[in-house]
Amino acid sequence: MSADAIDGAALDGVAATCLWTLRNRAEESRHPGSAFTDPLADDLHRRISYDYARFGKPGQIHPLRALALDSAIRAYLDRHPAATVVALGEGLQTTYWRLGRPAVDWLSVDLPPVIDLRRRLLPPEPRMTALPASALDRTWLDVPDPARGVFISAEGLFMYLGREEVLGLIAECAARFPGGQLFFDSIPPWISRRTMKGHRLSDRYTAPPMPFGLTVSEAARLPGRFPGIAAVEDVQPPPGRKAWRPGTLRKIADLPGLRELRPSITLVTFAEDR
Ligand SMILES: C[S@@+](CC[C@H](N)C(=O)[O-])C[C@H]1O[C@@H](n2cnc3c(N)ncnc32)[C@H](O)[C@@H]1O
């Protein structure tokens, strides 16, 4: 390790999973011909010394999910230019810089060791606030001004939480932020069960338990379950390379039998003031 390298081993347990997703974005960003470009992710990845190979082979799902998130935030900010973006479990995500909209108010919420790394490694931004707290600790809900619009991302977060915790948080966001949106991704219950038995990504790394699984059809029923939810969209990630190119995986993903078995991205729209 060089003298100024940061040791990623300071993170463990669920906090260390942000190094897995960072590695996948950085690798994809370096890939010739990729639609995903993120020089800051590349820089972070190089500056954090870590045994990244323990996460197994790099994959495209995390960069493609990030592109889907970028599009959803852009669309919301186009309609609500004064809105606050709240990034729950933001890890070492660099969405703010990819978007290139420095005037947006940004609240980053993650566990204290992760926020500490963000503070040490990422450029300070006057519109960005970092809260070292659990997303389940409701203090963050008091920060954004609901009247200006609120976009909440929970990218790679909800699967690590309990079912009642997640559903309770969704209901509370719907009640507190009328007209807002929530972007989150889910694993299906069969993958959740597998992680509870110990899902090994390599011979040196077992992913933390992911107790919360959700099917596409259960996500589609959220509006009937919570009055504050006006609509949900099953978001398809944009096409990527090879197996992720247009027309292959995406077609398979919509086969009726597989719809319920695949991971998903959900964009929830909260009802306007009631
Ligand atoms: C798989 S990483 C995803 C990080 C980032 N969103 C991304 O896509 O790269 C999961 C993140 O959730 C954070 N996390 C886990 N439990 C949390 C909680 N209760 N509150 C806030 N953050 C949490 C972890 O510290 C980690 O940064």
Structure description:
This protein is an alpha/beta fold and 274 residues long. The chain has 11 helices and 11 strands. The chain has a single domain, classed as Rossmann fold. The chain has helices spanning 17-30, 39-47, 61-79, 95-99, 112-121, 163-176, 189-196, 216-220, 222-225, 249-253, 256-259; strands at residues 6-7, 48-49, 84-88, 105-110, 128-132, 150-154, 181-186, 199-202, 205-207, 229-235, 264-270. A 7-stranded mixed β-sheet has the order 5-4-3-6-7-11-10, with helices on both faces. Strands 1-2 form a two-stranded parallel sheet. Strand 6 (150-154), helix 6 (163-176) and strand 7 form a beta-alpha-beta unit. The radius of gyration is 18 Å and the shape is globular. The protein starts with 5 loop residues before the first strand and ends with a strand. The structure holds S-adenosylmethionine. The site of S-adenosylmethionine has 21 residues, from helix 1 and strand 4.
Task: Give the SSE map.
Elements: E1 6-7, H1 17-30, H2 39-47, E2 48-49, H3 61-79, E3 84-88, H4 95-99, E4 105-110, H5 112-121, E5 128-132, E6 150-154, H6 163-176, E7 181-186, H7 189-196, E8 199-202, E9 205-207, H8 216-220, H9 222-225, E10 229-235, H10 249-253, H11 256-259, E11 264-270
Helix pairs in contact: 1-2, 1-3
The structure holds S-adenosylmethionine.
